[in-house]
Amino acid sequence: MLQSSYPFYLANRPESPNTDLEVIDKYSGDVATRVALAKPEDIDRGITAAVAATEAMRKFPPYERQNVLMHCVARFTERFDELAGALCIEAGKPIKDSRGEVSRLIDTFRIAAEESVRIDGEVLNLEISARARGYRGMTQRVPIGPCSFISPFNFPLNLAAHKVAPAIAAGCPFVLKPASLTPIGALIIGEVLAETDLPEGAFSILPCRRDGADLFTVDERLKLLSFTGSPGVGWALKARAGKKPVVLELGGNAACIVDADADLEDATERLIFGAFYQSGQSCIGVQRILIHADVYDEMRERLVAASEKLVAGDPKDEQTFIGPMISEREATRLHDWIHAAVDAGASLLCGGGRDGAMLEATLLEGVPRDQKVCTEEAFGPVAVLSPFDDFKTALDEVNDSVFGLQAGIFTKNLYKAQQAWDELEVGGVVIGDVPSWRVDNMPYGGVKDSGLGREGIRYAIEDMTEPRLLVIRTPQT
After folding, report:
1. Which residue among 6, 14, 144, 437 has the highest number of C-beta atoms inside a 10 angstrom radius?
2. How many other C-beta atoms lie within 10 A of the C-beta of residue 138?
């Protein structure tokens, strides 16, 4: 059960100046709880506190950072069911997927705890010529300073964790803006962090309206901006961020190739998961499925049959696989895209219906390449099927996109797997599985319109630290 209201966290402490932000149960449409809404002056105070905490966080010993992170692991484990239940309500995420995300939250903090005590530099051989005789060098990685984080609605726990946990490991104070549609998970993270010995001002978690969040982007006191969300918003923020480094984890329209030698039963199971888990609201959800012509008809039948068996309904029900989209507006948008494709000549293989925020699992084929369900990020339960004869042509079709996050390849041919890895313009290639697969210590991010930089704890720590060089000269006698 959710509390009747939740505070925000400013400089490590809960504050409840109002209860102005309504959080809606995404399935029932009812108000589930209320949250304190930060105003610009609160955000300014949070940034001021983070700046003041910079030195204390830099000096906060690695073993103490590890203790904080391991405290979080223990408390998240104790509050597992509460976190999963809150996620199910605020995001409309089926309860099985909600539990999976809580598990990943715990994994992410555990990995960060491990990394916090091995942020190492290196020793450099500077004696590359006679003039450098007697010189040696070494580097250490130092915290970049106060960081600004903006996290999205679709993974409100784990994608916030991928910013918060490495910041603590690196010794960076931060301010976090969670998505206003799904703030509860981040606020519970804040409640747990408030139990620790982090220096005063080390963190602030401040839900706010988009139009009140400018300081998260433009304030020059912040030394890094990390944003996860839509491409349009992300690139606009980068343009306004000034001199600070920006990490962007943005959208995609991920493709999957099923070659003629694939295990079709296994591929079907994974593709159904990749396309429709949490109602397709994942930036690496399977949106385009390219199937070799020799197995296309059989694979299409398998996918349609499996899609039609999926249970849609209340995300709190253990049997539910398809829950609501985040809002009726988003469901209407995608419903319109589907039927625009049909009007343009596509065939609707299954699904296509909508009831409020509930959109049926939908498969299309014969979709003209200029339709939005092919060119844009669908971010919902729809996938487009198309046949191919030549593997290289299929790779070219995957690359024919402004996005480049991840791709999946079902093949048993080692050389084709390597060819895909070499030629696909994406941040990651997954062989034998869907692009939706992610584990929390791997480098994760995209190219082209899908973003800049990489998350994954060690890689995020690199962004949140800077190398500092030391040169020592030994006089030659």
Report:
1. 6
2. 14
Query: Which of 183, 138, 79 minimizes the C-alpha distance to 467?
Result: 138
Residue-wise pLDDT for 139-192, tens only, equals 999 999 999 999 999 999 999 999 999 999 999 999 999 999 999 999 999 999
Helix (H, G, I), strand (E, B) or coil at 188: helix
Report DSSP letters for 92-127, one per residue: ---HHHHHHHHHHHHHHHHHHHHHHT----EEEE--
User: Which residues, listed in sequence order, are joined to residue 124 by a DSSP beta bridge?
Assistant: 137
Please give the single-letter amino acid code of residue 95: I
Whether 298 and 342 have beta carbons less than 8 Å apart is answered as no
CA–centroid distance for 167 within its chain: 16
* CA pair distance 445, 33, nearest whole angstrom: 33
Contact yes or no for 88/315 (Cβ under 8 A): yes
Active site members: 249, 283
DSSP conformational letter for 62: H
Helix (H, G, I), strand (E, B) or coil at 390: coil
φ, ψ (nearest 5 deg) of residue 466: -125, 145
Residues 304, 299: Cα–Cα separation, whole Å:
9
- Name residue, tokens 């296509």: 352
Check: CB of residue 184 under 8 Å from CB of residue 2.
yes
pLDDT tens string 272-316: 999 999 999 999 999 999 999 999 999 999 999 999 999 999 999
* Cα 117–Cα 118–Cα 122 angle in degrees, nearest 5: 140
State the helix-helix crossing angle for 62-78 and 158-170, rounded to 10 degrees: 160
Q: Quick one: tokens of 308?
A: 């039609």
